[in-house]
């Protein structure tokens, strides 16, 4: 997750909004809106990446299951009785 540019952009947005709040350039509500939106972007990006990995794994499993497998015939003996 730390390799994602989204994480660093979101952290930069949070730090910038906190700095703007400390400098009294923005209100608390505006600062919180930017921080919450940034954190949501991180988790949304992480969720999309996990979904993509799961979909690729499902495609891989489906393609390997599509190859025909030879099944040996089993002969059944009738019980004499």
Instruction: Give me the count of strands.
Output: 0
Following the backbone from N to C, one meets helices and strands in this order, namely HH
Q: Give the CA-CA distance, first to last residue.
A: 69 Å
The gross shape turns out to be rod-shaped
How would you describe the overall organization of this protein?
This protein has about 80 residues and is mainly alpha-helical. The protein has helices at about 5-20, 30-65. About 5% of the residues are buried.
Indicate the topology:
Blueprint: H1 5-22, H2 28-65
Helix pairs in contact: 1-2
Give the gist of this structure.
The chain has 81 residues and is an all-alpha fold. The chain has helices at residues 5-22, 28-65.
Features:
81 residues, mainly alpha
């Amino acid at each position: 997750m730390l390799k994602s540019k989204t994480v660093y952009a979101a952290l930069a947005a949070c730090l910038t909004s906190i700095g703007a709040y400390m400098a009294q350039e923005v209100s608390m509500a505006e600062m919180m809106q930017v921080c919450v939106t940034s954190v949501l972007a991180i988790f949304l990006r992480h969720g999309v990446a996990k979904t993509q990995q799961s979909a690729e794994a499902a495609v891989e499993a489906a393609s390997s299951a599509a190859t025909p497998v030879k099944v040996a015939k089993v002969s059944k003996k009738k019980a004499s009785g």
